[in-house]
Design goal:
The complex is a heterodimer of chains A (469) and B (177). By secondary structure, chain A is an all-alpha fold. Helix content of chain A is 69%, strand content 0%. Chain A contains 16 helices and no strands. The two termini of chain A are 34 Å apart. Chain B folds into two domains: 3-52 and 128-176, Alpha-Beta Plaits; 55-120, no CATH class. Helices cover 43% and strands 14% of the residues of chain B. Classes of the chains: A mainly alpha (469), B alpha+beta (177). Chains A and B meet through helix 1, helix 5, helix 7 and helix 15 of A and strand 2, helix 3 and helix 4 of B.
């Protein structure tokens, strides 16, 4: 667990602050090319992993088995094992889908948008956030597929000249979703892997064992750090960032159109796209923090992921959280102001109806708790920040529950009202998907460099970049 | 080593500024078949070495093809091949074709960016003579290299070595094929 070569750990390092209260240095202590390579590279090259990695991996893997079990039972028995029925036909599958795809958005936001805005502080967390994006999109994509009823014919939704002579209905937001999520996954994968290639080459060059040389050698694709490689790599990376930026805004907008295009009270609203995008970035940053804080502690990355990163991420959460809270307010206001009896009833039912307690829990986790981020002490304390981020993860899941289930269970005609109660299989699939996500994440931490090594070297070479606030 | 078995001569530098100046001097000296190696991208180094970059143009074309193709696909499928009248809306209801047109523009441009960058760099290529250079692993860590290849018309074993020595590198080494 302790490598003798590691630079001194400065857990209680207090950063020097600028007049506005920002820490002035990106990296907490004097870093050189060698300490950067060593700190990040050693995590993947050392044989023994710290005990917390094993504990986490075993728990995640056990949850993954739960997921496989739940999915196998679903394929055998069909979607009837879930609590869904008419009127609530969407249930947990769509709640979980929107939750996961929202979590994914922070990764793209951190990598692409902050890259275009020259926010060099992103370097310590972007690779990690990109990996998180990829795994979260993978989890998200599974839910609509499993919800199809006959997932093995999912390809019917893709446009191909089939023998039935049919085409997908391209005017349907559900078909837009397939293209949006598919594109998002592919572009995230390309962006992540393109950024990873020089780092894989670094690990290849540092590897001492034969299997490591081969494994990283193959993945590095023969990268030679040549000026020509860098030139094409940099422009392609920048262009991918430029493409991913509108893409990330479009994906959650398209997801929100699944709801907004429908006529159900509580869904049919022009506010949904921006409100969903803000919520996505909010939940994504919360998930990044939930994972990065323990990882930083276990792998002693305090020198690379500093309190300044936490402070910046907490600020983003505070802003997007306020946008989301504004969204809740406008939703309530518009349903009253519309004068539409169904819309007005939807809001009353949402707040005081049978699922009212979910709404109030949502308000607590998503609106009340995050207000503590106004305090700089809470933003700069990893433990309190972890608790706030965890609360937002729960809150954002509840938000999707409120939108999907309370809107559907009582729509227009009282005779068609009904209740939705999740079954054990609903819960098993939700927690199982968390197992899938965490298993992939633990394998990523173990086998791939989790911080962008070459970009960190660049910051060491040009420290003035790291100073920009 | 005979020139037949030689890939080139490589000079090793300690800082990026030394490599950059060396690249400029080598270009001024008339060398073209050469490459620089550094642990991170150095702005302007590829230009100083005379490397051209066609990736942006390829990405633009990829995006245009993706967007036009996506719109054509939707129009053909929902207007010509399989028209369905839904609530009397026009068959060619173009606003609802925009999301997929956008997504596929991004997808095709991104695929072009990724594969274009790899292809123009000649990757994947597991073996390359540069890897024969004993110290080359440090190109991904803390060393900067300039390699002039034997296939450059201006290459001359003795003169090129002398030229590289004049740049005050840490050392000049032969890169075997």
């Amino acid at each position: 667990m302790n490598s003798p070569k590691q630079p001194p750990v400065t857990d209680r390092y207090s950063p020097s602050l600028s007049r506005l209260g920002y820490p002035t240095n990106l990296f907490a202590c004097e870093q050189t090319f060698e300490t950067v390579n060593e700190t990040i590279g050693s995590v993947v090259l050392q044989d023994r992993q710290p005990r917390p990695w094993w504990i986490g991996f075993i728990v995640a893997f056990a949850l993954l088995m739960v997921f496989f079990f739940a999915v196998a039972w679903l394929l055998i028995r069909g979607v009837g094992i879930w609590g869904i029925n008419i009127p609530v036909a969407w249930g947990f599958a769509i709640v979980n889908f929107v939750w996961w795809i929202g979590i994914a958005h922070a990764g793209t936001f951190i990598s692409a948008i902050l890259l275009l805005m020259f926010q060099h502080w992103r370097t310590a967390i972007n690779r990690f956030a990109e990996a998180m994006t990829l795994f979260a999109v993978a989890c998200a994509g599974l839910f609509p597929l499993l919800h199809l009823g006959r997932p093995w014919v999912f390809y019917w939704i893709l446009p191909y000249p089939d023998t039935m002579g049919m085409w997908p209905q391209f005017r349907s937001p559900l078909v837009w979703d397939v293209f949006a999520v598919g594109t998002y996954f592919t572009v995230s994968l390309l962006f992540w892997f393109l950024g990873l290639i020089p780092d894989l080459a670094t690990v290849r060059d540092r590897a001492r064992k034969n299997w490591q040389k081969k494994f990283y050698g193959v993945l590095a694709l023969g990268w030679r750090n040549s000026a020509a490689h860098w030139q094409r790599h940099q422009i392609a990376y920048l262009l991918l960032a430029g493409l991913a930026t509108p893409l990330v805004l479009s994906v959650h907008s398209v997801v929100s159109l699944d709801f907004a295009v429908a006529q159900v009270p509580g869904w049919h609203s022009t506010m949904f796209p921006p409100y969903f995008v803000a919520g996505a970035i909010y939940s994504g940053f919360a998930m990044v923090l939930t994972i990065v804080i323990p990882v930083r502690k276990v792998y002693r990355l305090e020198n690379l992921i500093t309190l300044r990163h936490f402070n910046n991420m907490a600020n983003v959460m505070l802003v997007t959280g306020l946008i989301v809270a504004y969204g809740y307010f406008i939703e309530a206001f518009m349903s009253w102001y519309s004068g539409d009896i169904f819309d007005q009833y939807m809001m009353t039912n949402r707040v005081f109806g049978p699922y009212g307690w979910v709404f109030w829990a949502l308000m607590f986790f998503n609106v009340v708790v995050p207000q503590s981020l106004w305090s700089a002490r809470i933003r700069r304390n990893p433990l309190t920040l972890f608790l706030v981020a965890f609360s937002i993860n729960i809150g954002m899941w509840l938000e999707r529950f409120v939108i999907v289930i309370t809107s559907l269970h009582r729509d227009f005609v009282p005779s068609s009202w009904g209740m939705f109660f999740p079954t054990v299989w609903d819960w098993a699939t939700l927690f199982g998907s968390i197992g899938l996500f965490l298993t992939l994440l633990f394998l990523f931490i173990r086998f791939l460099p989790m911080i962008a090594i070459s970009e960190s070297r660049e910051l060491v070479a040009e420290p003035q970049k790291a100073m920009t606030t | 080593m005979s020139e037949k078995n030689l890939f080139g001569l490589a000079a090793e530098f300690e800082t990026q500024d030394e490599l950059f100046r060396a690249a400029e001097k080598a270009f001024a000296e008339g060398y073209r078949k050469m490459d620089g190696f550094a642990p991170f991208p150095i702005e302007g180094l590829a230009d100083a070495l005379g490397k051209k970059n066609r990736v942006p143009l390829m990405v633009l074309l990829g995006g245009i093809i993706g967007g036009a193709g996506a719109y054509y696909m939707q129009w053909y499928a929902n207007v010509i091949s399989f028209p369905i009248n839904i609530g009397g809306r026009p068959m060619h209801s173009w606003p609802s074709f925009i999301p997929i047109t956008f997504e596929l523009t991004v997808l095709c441009a991104a695929l072009t960016a990724f594969f274009g960058a790899l292809a123009t760099s000649g990757l994947p290529r597991p073996y390359h003579p540069m890897f024969n250079l004993p110290d080359f692993a440090r190109a991904s860590q803390d060393r900067f290299f300039l390699c002039i290849e034997t296939r450059d018309p201006a290459f001359d074993p003795a003169k090129t070595r002398e030229f590289l020595q004049s740049l005050h590198p840490l050392q000049v080494a032969e890169v075997p094929k």
